[in-house]
Structures are given as structure tokens and as C-alpha cells.
Amino acid sequence: MSKNWSLLLVVAFALGFGIKTYFDSQAEIEQQPESTVLFGKENQAVDLFNTQDQRVRVVYFGFTRCPDVCPTSLAMLSGALNEIDESAQKQFWPLFISLDPDRDAAADAHKYAQYFHPMIEGLSAPLDVTKPLADSYGVIFRKTELENSQLGYTLDHSSYFYFLKPDGTLITKVPHTMTPAPIVAAMNKITSEGK
Q: With a threshold of 0.85, does the pTM exceed it?
């Protein structure tokens, strides 16, 4: 067998393995997480996947001490909510879920989210609740210690908006954006398709 054929077989194998890995990871993301209770305004329990509430969840995972990515993302979500009409707004439940429960009590997460838009509900819960939830959608986050800082640590995290059916099934996700347009486009597509 010539070197070209050997190289071609290696490339084909690597490409096939990469595609299989991608689709396997997508299948994992689409698995429905178990019913999850978090805490929001006035520390009230919130069942994220209460199917009596038929709104599409627009979930963003972050933390209140995030220096740039979270504020930018929530500002873009706010902009998107302001661009759609009131009847479309009623079809969505925008949520900010803290990945830093040690520093973000439910009241703090809620106050932070409300700063960006009155529709965005801020939630927090212990990591044994939020980590499996985040993991089920492929959210990556890790604590990074900060030397000589009063903050002590920060969180490095992926930045996506997850559009979920009431039972937690992933509809679509929108990556970090510097304009509201991709979020608006996802919202318009969901409302036109009726979820």
C-alpha cells in the first residue's frame, strides 16, 4: 500500500472518530435532566422543569462577580427581550443560574439578574444541584485561584444561552454574542415553529 493510501486511511479514521465524538456529545446534551429545584427571589424554591409552566426557558449559567462575559451576555439577552413584542416575551422564561453558590446567595443572583432586565430571574442552589444541571447541557466551568486578590478566586466558564422545553429538553443553544441578533433569531424561530 502506498504512503498516500496510508495517510488517507489515517485521515479518514481521525475524521470519522471526530464526527462520532461530536454526535455522541450532542446526544448527551439532549438528555433530559431530572427535575431540579433552585432558589430565587426571597429564597423561594423554583422548579425549573415544572411542566405546568409552558414557557421556553432561556438559561444562562454564570456568576455575579464575573468581570466581563456574564454582564455582556445578560445585556445581550436584555436587548433581545426588548426587541421582541410582548406576546413573544410571554413565551419565554429568561433565567440566570449562578455557578458560584458559595458567594451568590439566591437573593444576590436574583438582584444581579434584575439589574439587566426585570424579566430575567436569578437563581442559585448548592453545587450538588447546579453542577449536574450544568453538566447535562455541556456547560464547562472551573474555579481559578487569584493570587493577591480580595476575590480569592474566579470561575472560568463556557458562555451559551440554552433554550429549553418545559421538561428540560434542549431546543437550541446560542453562543456568546456581542449583539442581541442571534438570540432574537432563535426566539423568532421558536415562536414561529410553536416550540
A: no
Which whole number is the average pLDDT over 128-156? 89
| Nearest CA among 39, 33, 173, 136 for reference residue 97 | 39
Q: What is the mean pLDDT of the chain?
A: 85
Residues 41 and 73: their CA atoms lie apart, in Å, by: 21
Cell readout for 99 is: 455557578
107 DSSP assignment = H
Neighbours of 184 (CB within 10 A): 19
Nearest to 38 by CA among 29, 30, 47: 47
Helices marked H in 30-141: 69-83, 86-89, 106-116, 127-136
Per-residue pLDDT tens digits for 69-107: 999 999 999 999 999 999 999 999 999 999 999 999 999
Cβ neighbors of 116 (< 8 A, separation 6 or more) are 71, 74, 75, 77, 78
Of the candidate ranges 18-22, 130-134, 191-195, the one whose mean pLDDT is the lowest: 18-22
| Closest-CA residue to 63 (of 93, 95, 104, 102) | 104
* Closest CA relative to residue 93, chosen from 143, 132, 51, 33: 51
Provide the grid cell at 156.
Answer: 472560568
